[in-house]
Known about the structure:
2 domains
Amino acid sequence: xxTTVNDTxxxxxxxxPNISEFSPEQNVKLYNFHPPVDDFRAxxxxxxxxxxxxxxxxxxYDKKGAELFDAICKLDEYYITRTEMAILQxxxxxxxxxxxxxxxxxxxxGSSQKVRIILDAKPRLRTYIALDxxxxxxxxxxxxxxxxxxxxxxxxxxxxxxxxxxLPDIPSLHNKYKVGFFPGSSIxxxxxxxxxxxxxxxxxxxxxxxSFIVGVDLKKSKxxxxxxxxxxxxxxxxxxxxxxxxxxxxxxxxxDQKNFAYQAVYNPIGRIEMSLVSLREQIVHIDxxxxxxxxxxxxxxxxxxxxxxxEFQALAAQAGFKPQCVWTDPEExxxxxxxxxx
Length: 342
């Protein structure tokens, strides 16, 4: 299903930090702007110190976490990936025409699988920019991509793409129309206010007349949603528990996975809430800091907000985008939005 809409809004600009090159290689330029371990430690300690203990979902994606998420995307219960892939395949030519001669910028590129559908529909695309938080996974994905699409220049940027940033000064990007690509439902991991801020950052990055293609999961029953985020094979649980393994490895913490259980529950306000639940009273250490967990206390690892098409378009309009069209599947489980920066 394709829907065309008209709307207007005002662009809000934000500041961006500089990015420096780390390691260029044939057909793949890598820019490493990964947050240092000290930043990771500070954010984890801050999150565990809150009355509602929380760790940002961006930290789920170390190499193992990225691999586990790829496995989640293949599960029967996880409708999101296959539904969005079907939408992309159905409307690939239309999307390719909208991209025109622009540079494609993918946020949260992961394994770069969905972008292949666009590349197949637009073989003349020359420049692809991939942004992701998982350094090794990002570089391997871009290397595999240019092997299969040798005409492609891939620019890999390891960064927290939810924060303001600017693209590197590369000649092939000069005076080029930029098309952002943010598939999946990662926009739902952000609280609504954070989503608005993120969308404003994207509008600033893409600049006036740039465009943005973003996947948005639609509201539906908990009977569909809860199994999608808590599968029968336990892959979703392993994905969340791997966060504790990463914190232990990188920060020297002493989390015991056996003392936590994974839970994914639908909240009627319109979001899935994913948590690790403490199975007993316990104390966890990071450096000299102690964190007490009561039995049954939740450590929030992720939220996934769901929107109606109208709700998301209103949010995008506030951020400085003009909604142009929406593609959905026949059952209207998922939506793919095409937005223009104004």
